[in-house]
Amino acid sequence: MKKTYLPLSLLALSATAQEKYNVVYIMTDDHTAQMMSCYDNRYVETPNLDRIANDGVRFVNSFVANSLSGPSRACMLTGKHSHANGFTSNVYDVFDGSQQTMPKLFQAAGYQTAMIGKWHLISDPTGFDFWNIVPGQGDYYNPEFINMDGSRTQHKGYMTNIVTDKAIDWMENKRDKDHPFLLFIHHKACHRNWLPELKYLSLYEDKEFPIPETFYDDYEGRPAAKAQEMSIASNHDMDLAYDVKVMDANVTTRLTPNYLSMIGRLDSRERAIYDQFYDSIAIDFRARKLSGKALTEYKYQRYMRDYAKVLKTLDDNVGRTLDYLRDAGLLENTLVVYTSDQGFYMGEHGWFDKRFMYEESFRTPLVMRLPDGLSARGDIPQMVQNIDYAPTFLDLCGIPVPEDMHGVSMLPLLRGESPKNWRDALYYHFHEFPAEHAVKRHYGVRTDRYTLIHFYEDIDVWELYDLQNDPQQLHNIYGQPGTEKITKRLKKRLVKLQEEYADPAVKLTK
Ligand code: SGN
Ligand code: CA
User: Fold this and answer.
1) Residue minimizing CA distance to atom 12 of ligand 1
2) What is the CATH number for 500?
3) Quick one: residue 203, left, alpha or beta (phi over 0 = left, psi -120 to 50 = alpha)?
4) Which stretches does DSSP call E strand in 286-349?
5) Please, what sign has the CA dihedral across residues 230, 93, 64, 423?
6) CA-to-CA distance for 350 and 297, rounded, in angstroms?
7) Both 30 and 120 in a single domain?
8) pTM above 0.85, yes or no
9) What would the pLDDT profile of 443-462 be if each residue is shown by its tens digit?
C-alpha cells in the first residue's frame, strides 16, 4: 500500500476505511476439499466457491491444528495451538474470552468487528462490536439466534440464507462506514445431519457417487482407526433415521428422538413438503430389504446426496456475498477468505466425521480473493495451518502480530513471494477422548513427505506414513526395517515443535 504521512493529531484516527483493508472471513462447518470443485471435481460443482479461487489463490496444502469445530475456531481466533488457548475439546472446555484474540486486536486498532453464525465456544463472543450467534451447533430449519443482550430470536427460514442475510445487513446498514471492518460469516453448513433447504430436496437424486477406493479399509496395523465409531456401515454410528432419513414409524433408532426434534422445527406446510420427499425414499428403502455391503453403499449414496444438497445452498450464498461485495464497491479493498473448520471423510476408510490426523480431516479447504496490491494468483504450495490466519489478517491490515502467537503470517505468500525458510513441518494435536466417535487422543508431525502420529491415553501406538508411496495412508510402516532413520528424524522434529509450542505432551514423546 502507498504510505501516507499524517500529522500526529491525526494518527489516532489512522484506521480509516480509505486506507485499510477489510477482511471478510467465511468459514463453514465440516466442508471438505473433496466436495469443492476447484479442489476435486469427482463429486459436485461449487461455482461460487471456485470463483474465489479463480480470481485469487488456492492453498493446496492447508491444514488445521485440531480437527474439531470449537478447538479449530479457538486456534483461528488466538493464532495458538489448543493446549495454549485452553479450548482443546467441544465437550470438556469453555473458551476463556478474556485472553488475547485476533478480533480484539482489530478492535483496538480502530476496526469495526462482527461475528455472525456458528460460534461454538460456549462462552459469549468477546472483541466484537456486533455479534449474533446460534446456540451450540444451531439448527438448519427456522433457527434461533442469540443476541448481544442474551435474548434469543427465532428466525423463519433456512440457516445458510439467514446467516448471509445478517452478514449483508451488517455490512450495508449496521457498521460504521468510517472505519475498516473485520467480518466473520460462520455457517452451520455442511454439518451433520445434513438437512437440505426444502427447494433443493430433489437435487442430486439421479446421481450415483463413485465409491472411494478406501471405502472397505480393514484398518490392518492401525488399532485406533479400527476403534473409531464413525463408520458408514455401522447403524450405531450412522443412524438410519437421523443421518440416512429413512425413518420407520415402528422402529425407534438411537437418534430418532434427535431427528424428530430437528424436523419438528418445520411448520406444517414445510413439514408436508419434507415428509413427502423423505417418506417416499423410506418406503422405497424398506421395499429393497438391503443388508451387508448393499446397505452400506445405499447409506453412502444418501449421505453424499444430502451433504451435496446442503452444500448447494452454501455455494449460492457465497455467491450472494461476493455479489454484494462487488456491488457495494468493496471487493478491491477486501480480503475474502473461504475455509472450513476442518476437512471431513466422504466415505474414505468407510467413514464420515473427522478428528483424525489422516489427510482428509487434517486438511481443510482454503481459498482467498485478494484485495488490490497483493499479486499472488493460482496455487500456493506451502504448508499453512489455521493458526496462521490471525497473524495473516493482522499483518495484512498493518496491526502488529503479537510474539506469543504460534502461527506465522502468510502475507509474503499472498504477495507472490516464496520465503526460503517457510515451515517444513506441521504440528497437530487432537484431545477429545473419551467422546462421541471414539477417536483416540493423538498428536503428530507432518512434513511434505511423512506423517508420524502417536495415539495415547488408553493406547500407546505410533504410526508412520510415507505420503509419497502411500497417499491414502493404508500402510503403517512404523517399526518396519529401514524406517529407523526417518523415524528418529521425525521424532526429533516432533519434540522440537512440542518444545517450541510448549505442549506438555512432549513428555510422551521423549
Ligand atoms: C455433534 C455430532 C458429531 C460431531 C460433533 C462435533 N453429533 O456432536 O457427529 O462429530 O458434533 O462436530 S450429532 O448427533 O449431534 O449430530 S463439530 O464440527 O461441531 O466439531
Ligand atoms: Ca466442524
Assistant:
1) 69
2) 3.30.1120.10
3) beta
4) 334-340
5) negative
6) 10
7) yes
8) yes
9) 999 999 999 999 999 999 99
Ligand nearest to the CA of 253: 1
Three cell numbers written together for 357:
490426523
Split into its structural domains, the chain has a count of: 2
Ligand index nearest the alpha carbon of residue 438: 1
Q: Let me know if residue 204 belongs to a domain.
A: no
Same domain for 455 and 375?
Answer: no
Of 29, 76, 87, 137, which is best to mutate to test ligand 1, by the most ligand atoms within 8 angstroms of its C-beta? 137
Q: Give the position of cell 461485495.
A: 325
Do 163 and 27 share a structural domain?
yes
C-alpha distances (whole Å) from 229 to each of 234, 356, 438, 450 are: 8, 12, 5, 26
Task: List pLDDT tens digits, range 471-507.
Answer: 999 999 999 999 999 999 999 999 999 999 999 999 9
Range of the domain at 392: 20-193+304-416
Same domain, residue pair 43 and 113: yes
Assess whether the previous peptide bond of 190 is cis (omega < 30° from 0). yes
Q: Mean of the pLDDT values across residues 230-257?
A: 97
Average pLDDT over residues 325-330: 98
Q: Please state the atom number of ligand 1 nearest to the C-alpha of residue 69.
A: 20
Which grid cell is 140? 438448519
Q: What is the pLDDT of residues 153-172, one digit of tens each?
A: 999 999 999 999 999 999 99
